[in-house]
Design goal:
10 helices, 334 residues, seven-stranded mixed sheet, single chain, Rossmann fold, 36% helix, two-stranded antiparallel ribbon, alpha/beta
Length: 334
């Protein structure tokens, strides 16, 4: 007996209006851009073209196709087992944080190489610098503590001409530091972004994976397979997301004049209360929570600044009056 055909909305309205992934995937176009995707596309139970999102190889190939088709990335390989993130959600972070930066510039989003962004935990996939540079022409510094991830991201940058010279990577030498050892003296960033480790332990990460796979398969799964990958430092750390964000907030106080907006993803609503308290304790001037939604998943960007409105205006005036730093390769046509 055939399953009843599902009615899908034409647009994923929960995604940001500028997100290129609001419409359902057009697998014909994606296969034309990336023929290697074809063997992974099949009709699902509802006779819709799709891939098996519980299979790591299918998710990896879909990401390759999306990055090539929408962002002009011709080479994108990551080591086995490393995080293979959902592209639409990562793009949403970039677009929402662009709006936040625009709020400091009379509603106009600054673009081009004058805007400098720090990605804490750039990972083996280098996703945020890819999307941020290709969409807005921003320059990036990406930090990571994992040498294997660092090497992988380096190869992605070197193999894509649009990224080479526009994304710099720095290996974090101190496992207990976040901004320390990365932000240099007299260096200034317009934005910092971060996708922190979510879980507090390996066991918790495994349990979360089983729940996700069971939902995807529609039945109970007892053996975890990381369909989106993820090594220890990517998925869990001592104290989980809440403690990581607390540490980030404390470290940001030391660099309060070095960055216009600090930000991080916060997946759990319950973690916001302590984060707000921590920011008030370190003297943050303004705090913003930007909601995001992708399907049934909700999260939020948590952002803060130590600078007042007059300082924001002065920051932007200096940026717009300085000679523009052109990216080596312009973003592709929208």
């Amino acid at each position: 007996m055939l399953n009843k055909k599902k009615e899908h909305p034409k647009e994923k309205t929960g995604l940001h209006p500028r997100n290129k992934h609001r419409e359902r995937y057009n697998f014909g176009e994606l296969i034309r851009s990336c023929p290697e995707l074809a063997p992974f596309v099949r009709l699902n139970d509802y006779k819709d073209e799709s891939v098996d999102f519980s299979e790591p190889s299918a998710v990896l190939m879909l990401n390759k196709a999306l990055l090539k088709h929408f962002y002009g990335i011709v080479h994108w390989e990551i080591p086995t087992g490393y995080l293979c993130p959902p592209i639409p959600g990562r793009a949403d972070y970039i677009h929402h944080i662009a709006d936040l930066l625009g709020s400091s510039n009379q509603g106009v989003i600054p673009t081009g190489g004058q805007v400098k962004c720090l990605d804490i935990g750039v990972g083996a996939n280098c996703i945020y610098p890819i999307i941020g540079h290709q969409e807005y022409g921003w320059r990036f510094v990406g930090s990571d503590i994992d040498p294997v991830a660092f090497k992988s991201a380096t190869e992605i940058i070197e193999m894509n001409a649009s990224l080479s010279g526009n994304v710099e990577l720095r290996l974090q030498p101190d496992a207990k530091a976040i901004f320390g050892g990365i932000i240099r003296q007299d260096e200034y960033f317009d934005l910092t972004i971060c996708n922190p480790p979510f879980h507090a332990s390996y066991e918790e990460a495994q349990s979360g994976t089983l729940r996700k796979l069971s939902n995807l398969k529609g039945k109970r799964i007892s053996k975890p397979t990381l369909n989106f990958g993820g090594k220890n430092r990517e998925l869990w750390c001592e104290g989980g997301e809440e403690k990581f964000v607390q540490k980030m907030i404390l470290d940001s106080q030391r660099f309060q004049a070095s960055c216009l907006w600090f930000s991080t993803l916060i997946s759990k609503q319950s973690h916001l209360k302590n984060a707000y308290t921590a920011l008030k304790n370190v003297g943050a001037v303004e705090i913003k929570t930007l909601p995001m939604s992708q399907g049934n998943k909700t999260s939020r960007i948590f952002a803060w600044t130590f600078l007042n409105q007059a300082q924001h205006k002065d920051w932007m005036n200096k940026k717009t009056s300085a000679p523009e730093l052109k990216p080596q390769s312009p973003p592709p046509d929208k």
